[in-house]
Predict the structure.
Amino acid sequence: MRRGWKMALSGGLRFCRRMLAWVPVLVIVLVVLWSYYAYVFEMCVVTVANTVEKVIYLAVYHALFVFFIWTYWKSIFTLPHQPHQKFFMSYGDKERYENEERPEVQKQMLLDIAKKLPVYTRTGNGAVRFCDRCHLIKPDRCHHCSVCSMCVLKMDHHCPWVNNCIGFSNYKFFLQFLAYSVLYCLYIATTVFQYFIKYWVGDLPNTRSKFHVLFLLFVACMFFVSLMILFGYHCWLLSRNKTTLEAFSAPVFLSGPDKNGFNLGFIRNFQQVFGENKKLWLLPIGSSPGDGHSFPMRSMNESQNPLLANEEHWEDNEEDGRGYYIKTSQKPNGNQMTMRPTCNPKWNGPSQGSVASV
């Protein structure tokens, strides 16, 4: 009997927690609905006298409003992707792992399982990344979300304002939501400003619209500043192909920690989120390449196979066909050095090279 009451109480608490999680979303929705009413009716319909100006304001506003709402909807209701079933432990492996009391044996068991999977990142002590709650080998850039109670592919963070975990499946939509939010607030502030001044100095009559116009400018500016800071931060992350979690803790590869391990250059970093089809960049339609389980790395050779670190090879520049001679060697302290001579099709020796640490 007591057990039944405890289960009912636990279920009730979980339900309340899920309902409370929607409060921030409800606040945003109410603010947006009020802003729509204040701008369309109190500002454009009542305050703006010029018909042409009124039509232009409403046309541009509704275009931004549609994209703003569309991206917000996609950020909320696009479910985060979980790892593929092959990353989960089998029933037999799970039993052997849980019954084994020696940590070194458990570590070796995870290593043996991970050899069959495309995972190249490790924990800080070099062990295979394993989730003891989901019982799976974590794919690269995957993390467990305590709020969603599951592992999320390429997890960035859990956002209470969309009540969803931001990761591989919806990071593009989240960035678009921030961008259109900034444009939405900026457009409202710039078009409302002249009428704010007119109400302030008394050029327009003191009606009900005055309160809405004055408050609309204040709210738009307040949200614009806060959203611009957040959007700028995520643009910086995008330019370096990092997640929020990776910005605080650098991913660890077989060769050691590397804060720029996934940095492929600005263009390729951008394409990792928005894809190569330019027609889809502004639309909240999924276009991110890959399946979220593995990602191209800056030093793929060192990450995939440390034995290749002592080999010499050529790399071709796809843009102009020139060759790069790359020589990688092992230093006594275990760090790797890479020699990259100046790109020159007539290069005949290492005298033009420069040495840089990888």
